[in-house]
């Protein structure tokens, strides 16, 4: 199931389910649910999966749109406009964070790196190598046990989010602006204080590689930038192995092509 959030001039924010290219506007059925998080909390209160609730409510949708129309619209004057697939009415209640050193690219490179890591004396390892080895050893804990924490960084609150077709700015203190295709896991803290994953989406993390390369300790400040993700949230992808591609075009010409990038659990 794929979910989008969007905005309509004069009607405000809303969200819907994409079924074969048609957006079923759930907010038209439930006007109090202007954001996906509202539906999540309703499902949580009822004790049912979010997907089940959305399937039930979408059958009673009273407004419909073509996804291709939302995809091409860049301004509210053009019609319904896509917004990030997950956000919060109060941007200060949303954290944008990231982790690193969690994926080797493929099983082969994972095995090669593992063999090299265990052969080294830990005292001679770089911090990055040591962190990666910690993840290999304790990154998948048994049920009921706490695993090792990965490298973690903070990008900002909900005010830094940008949607499909919105501009990503380079702040005056930055040395660079670089595209970074990522997979984003979107989570909500439920009424019991437990993080619950809503789903996955694509992202352009938008980082400052020039600053980061000066010194690895500059990783954190290099991330304090806007970012975009979406336009759809995928609720039920298994996320085991995903191939990503990043291309940058200017004036109709491709100026950058990353080739295949691997991600997943």
Q: Write down the CATH topology of the largest domain.
A: Fumarylacetoacetate hydrolase, domain 2
Low-confidence blocks of residues: 106-110
Number of helices: 7
Largest sheet: number of strands, sense, barrel closure: 6 strands, antiparallel
The total of beta strands comes to 16
Provide the helix percentage.
Answer: 10-25%
Secondary-structure element string: EEEHHEHEEHHEEEEHHEEEEEE
Structural class, from secondary structure content?
Answer: alpha+beta
CATH architecture of the largest domain: Alpha-Beta Complex
The CATH homologous superfamily of the largest domain is named Fumarylacetoacetase-like, C-terminal domain
Write down the domain tally.
2
Q: Tell me, what's the shape?
A: globular
- The overall pLDDT, averaged over residues, is 88
Distance between the termini: 20 Å
Radius of gyration, in angstroms, nearest whole number:
20 Å
* CATH class term of the largest domain: Alpha Beta
Strand composition percent? 25-35%
Task: Provide keyphrases for this structure.
alpha+beta; globular; Fumarylacetoacetate hydrolase, domain 2; 265 residues; 6-stranded antiparallel beta sheet; 2 domains; 4-stranded mixed beta sheet
């Amino acid at each position: 199931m794929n979910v989008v959030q969007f905005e309509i001039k004069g009607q405000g924010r809303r969200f819907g389910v994409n079924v074969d290219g048609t957006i079923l506007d759930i907010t038209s059925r439930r006007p109090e649910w202007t954001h996906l998080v509202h539906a999540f909390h309703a499902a949580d209160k009822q004790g049912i999966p979010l997907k089940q609730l959305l399937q039930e409510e979408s059958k009673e949708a009273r407004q419909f749109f073509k996804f291709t129309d939302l995809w091409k619209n860049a301004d509210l004057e053009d019609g319904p406009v896509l917004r990030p697939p997950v956000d919060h009415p109060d941007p200060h209640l949303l954290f944008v964070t990231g982790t690193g050193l969690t994926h080797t690219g493929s099983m082969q490179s994972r095995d090669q790196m593992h063999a090299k890591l265990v052969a080294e004396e830990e005292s001679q390892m770089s911090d990055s190598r040591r962190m990666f080895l910690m993840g290999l050893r304790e990154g998948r804990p048994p049920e009921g046990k706490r695993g090792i924490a990965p490298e973690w960084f903070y990008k900002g609150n909900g005010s830094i989010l940008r949607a499909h077709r919105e501009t990503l700015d380079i702040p005056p203190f930055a040395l660079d602006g670089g595209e970074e295709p990522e997979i984003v896991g979107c989570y909500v803290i439920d009424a019991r204080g437990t993080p619950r994953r809503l789903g996955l989406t694509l992202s352009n993390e938008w980082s400052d590689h020039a600053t980061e390369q000066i010194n690895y300790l500059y990783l954190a400040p290099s991330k304090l930038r806007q970012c975009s993700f979406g336009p759809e949230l995928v609720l039920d992808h298994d996320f085991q192995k995903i191939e990503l591609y990043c291309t940058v075009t200017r004036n109709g010409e491709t100026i950058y092509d990353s080739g295949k990038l691997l991600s997943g659990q």
